[in-house]
Amino acid sequence: MATIHGNWQPSHGENGGKLFLWADTWGTTMPEATGDRHPFALDVPALVQAWSNVPLAFPPLDKVTEQTLTLHLPSHRQQKSPCPL
Question: Residue 14: pLDDT above 80?
Answer without folding.
Answer: no
